[in-house]
Amino acid sequence: IRRFLNITWPMLRPTTFFLLVTGIVNSFAVFEQVNILTSGGPLNRTTTVVHQIYRRGFLEFKMGYASAMAVLLLGFSLIVTMLVFKFGNKGQDIEKWTKGIWLVCMGGVSFIMILPIVMMISTSFKTTGEINSAVFHFLPGTFDFNNYKEALYTGNWSVYFRNSLVITITSIAF
To answer: What does pTM read for this prediction?
Structure first.
């Protein structure tokens, strides 16, 4: 036991940490299983946040609402990831070259990924008329917070996050 705690576990910690972060983030993105098996289930009891984003955006054509939900989910995922980074990576010193490689890779990924995220945030502030307009504008004409109000107050977030957390816990535990 002493050898495991002092030698094996410290060597496995970076891998375990990576698997924990990716497992948590990926489990909040569960869509296929819910859509195929239950389509949200009876009275939305088996739906998740990502499934609700899909339903609001592509079935109800509320793109601003769906974008606002996606921005909120992105913020929640970033908070969870930062908490795992803060509390899950204790005692790990990253060597300079590893940190440099990580920064270059993350910079490249960030550059590639930034445009869809900016579009999602921009769309979340647009009115339905601006979104459905034939003329495309990258930024909204006026910043409208009604999509965020609707996403926060009309959605059943406690059920959606509870279902996502159940999936997260079971996928990480097993």
So the answer is: 0.62
